[in-house]
Amino acid sequence: MKNISIKILSLVFFSASLASCKKWVDYDPKEDFRITQEEYLKSETDYRTMAVSVYTPIQWLNQAVPVGDIASDNSVSGGENASDVLSLQQIDDFTHTPNNSTLTELWVAAYEGINRANYLHQYRATNLAGQTVDFAGKDALYGEIYFLRAYYYFHLVKFFGEVPLFVDKRLTLSESKTLPRSPKADVYRAIETDLTNAIAVLPAVQVQKGRITKYAAQALLGKVYLYQKKYDAAAAMLENVITSNAFTLVADFNSIFLLSGENGPESVFEIQYSNGSPYYNWGGVTRGQGNHSVQQCGIRGLNGSADMPYAAGWSTNLPAQNLAAAYAAGDKRKAVTVLDIEAYKAANPSYNITYQVAPFKNTGLYNQKYLPRKGQTSGQVELNYQNNFRTIRYADVLLMAAEANNKATAPNDAKAQTYLNLVRRRAFGDLLHDITATGNTLYLAILDERRLELAMEGERFFDLVRTGQAAAKLPSFIVGKHEVFPIPQAEIDISGIAQNPGY
Question: Domains of the chain: which residue ranges?
């Protein structure tokens, strides 16, 4: 998190080595200056430091955002050639297999976060020594932990469907070999329980930016209900966020995605990235503390004058012409979402722009929302961009609430229109583009608006799947298979769990 000293606690990574040392009955890890489990959870500081470590793996899920668009009709994999970032090429072409490295990374990172949350849950009442450590704000701190665990499981159930579910304690290697996949209903039930518990104790406002609030938990729970088609519950939960008056739509859509716009009045929940500690590890899940996906979507070989704002990248996750064409004339979101590099070059001759045309699946367009900019990285620059992911925006809440009200047992299309049109009025800057349709026509308009508003933010593929539109919109999509991604083969080999159908 920005401005938080993140410590990856030794107990998480040394548990296996400690177990192997048990045969040396006289060995004391302290002799080798090793920190053991017994050293932790003895003070408020310990609990708070370890809670921060539960946030950390959420940064490692950065590839979930490009996958959510590349797997859809919003963008293509791009890159230098057909083998450049092969895992994303396969997802784009719907040829991905259980050996896909990106999907494996997204599985591993989520379960690392769950294990960290479970460890703190396991010792909430007492620490390893059986001691009770109470302090002001402990319940609220655990609200953050339960939100994060719910977020990790929601990520997993969206990507993989039925997944191993464990919530009582940290899972050991031997236990992982016997844990089966749980039905999606059970996973969702656990997510709902965690978020309900979090809502009960989280504050409405956090002093430190990026910390989870009650409203973030309500918004995520509303989304979880929506994914299960629990429309009445979703409408009621999202209404809490709307009527709180804690959030507003930012007048300038472009400003949301600038560094100065992070954690702004439209931000319900953002994943925080930093470049203050420019650690990097190309071969690891962690890689760095920055947002790796920003480098991916930059313009390959970009050069220009010193005042040209953009930095070069790898030409991955290129917006599709289909997406650009979906925006109506006058929609201000188009220019913020897709950058036509040739048009930009022609409009700014003083920048003396040169660049390498994206060699593979070139669309001529680039992801403007998260395009790398000069001065926003450090160290190993590719891995340390500090751009936050705007994970839940107020506009998303409004559109989810519009959908839920339209599909409720007793539909409230008037309210659905109101929430939809708030988003559209910001997009066009007038009242002339309001939607007055009702029923299913209104529903389809809301779904179209989600695409336009949230494009390149990782929502599109999952929206198409949950609403049953994927097969009609995605030519290579196979019903009964591609609703979920394959369980990583490494997990199948270790745990012996069943693979998803078709893989």
Answer: 298-371
Burial class (CB in 10 A: 0-12, 13-18, 19+), 18: middle
Tell me which H or E stretch contains 317.
strand 316-319
By DSSP bridging, strand 299-300 and strand 312-313 are: parallel
- Tens-digit pLDDT profile for residues 92-138: 999 999 999 999 999 999 999 999 999 999 999 999 889 999 999 99
Q: By the 8 A CB rule, do 239 and 233 touch?
A: no
Q: At what angle do helices 138-160 and 214-227 cross, to 10 degrees?
A: 30
Q: Give residue 348's pLDDT.
A: 97
Kindly report the length of the chain: 503
Contact between 278 and 378 under an 8 Å Cβ cutoff? The reply is: yes
Is residue 314 a contact partner of residue 296, using CB atoms and an 8 Å limit? yes
| Sign (positive or negative) of CA dihedral 37, 41, 46, 51 | positive
What percent of the chain is helix, strand and coil (3-state, nearest 5)?
50, 10, 45
194-250: pLDDT as tens digits: 999 999 999 999 999 999 999 999 999 999 999 999 999 999 999 999 999 999 999
Q: What are phi and psi for residue 474, nearest 5 degrees?
A: -120, 105
Q: What is the CA radius of gyration of the chain?
A: 23
